[in-house]
């Protein structure tokens, strides 16, 4: 990754963080600490990212994506770690083939995609999970680990 790529990613993530209501401009705003707490990462990782010093590791990227309600795919592509060719979107216009299992969202991805506030995810997952067919838990866990 070039310095220019890191600068572009940093500018994009700063804008996204501000758009999600985190005050990262004021030293007393607490936005960096709040974001770090909600994502379950060290504040230093947020600071290094916002200063363009380093790219977060994969786990930090995943956690930030969920808190910021952005697909992990988009974070990985915008960060320059992977390309759109590396992470193609499924062709939703055709019927699933017998060889490929149907694409399933995890309940966490559904919550993020629907805009459920992060502090209500546990309740959403418990309630929505009651409507899944038997055995879907293993599929959701498999997709979540990928």
Give the SSE string. Answer: HHHHHHHH
Mean pLDDT: 81
Strand content: under 5%
Radius of gyration: 17 Å
Give the number of DSSP strands: 0
Number of helices: 8
Low-confidence stretches: 138-146
Distance between the termini: 23 Å
Structural class, please? mainly alpha
Fraction of residues in helices? 40-55%
The largest pleated sheet is described as: none
Structure description:
There is one protein chain. Helix content is 53%, strand content 0%. It has 146 residues and is an all-alpha fold. Helix 2 (31-39) crosses helix 3 and helix 2 crosses helix 4 (58-67). The radius of gyration is 17 Å and the shape is flat.
Topology at a glance:
Blueprint: H1 3-19, H2 31-39, H3 43-50, H4 58-67, H5 72-78, H6 107-114, H7 121-129, H8 136-145
Helix pairs in contact: 2-3, 2-4, 6-7
Descriptive key words:
146 residues; 8 helices; flat
In short:
With 146 residues, this protein is mostly helical.
């Amino acid at each position: 990754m070039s310095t220019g790529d890191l600068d572009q990613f940093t500018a994009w993530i700063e804008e996204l963080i501000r758009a999600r209501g985190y005050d990262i401009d004021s030293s007393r705003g607490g936005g960096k600490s709040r974001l770090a707490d909600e994502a379950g990462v060290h504040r230093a990782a947020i600071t290094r990212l916002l200063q363009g010093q380093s790219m977060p590791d994969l786990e930090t990227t995943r956690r930030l994506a969920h808190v910021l309600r952005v697909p992990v795919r988009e974070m990985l592509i915008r960060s320059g770690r992977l390309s759109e060719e590396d992470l193609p979107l499924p062709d939703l216009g055709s019927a699933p083939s017998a060889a490929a299992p149907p694409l399933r969202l995890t309940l966490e991805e559904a919550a993020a995609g629907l805009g459920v506030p992060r502090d209500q995810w546990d309740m959403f997952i418990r309630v929505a999970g009651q409507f899944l067919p038997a055995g879907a838990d293993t599929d959701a866990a498999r997709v979540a680990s990928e």
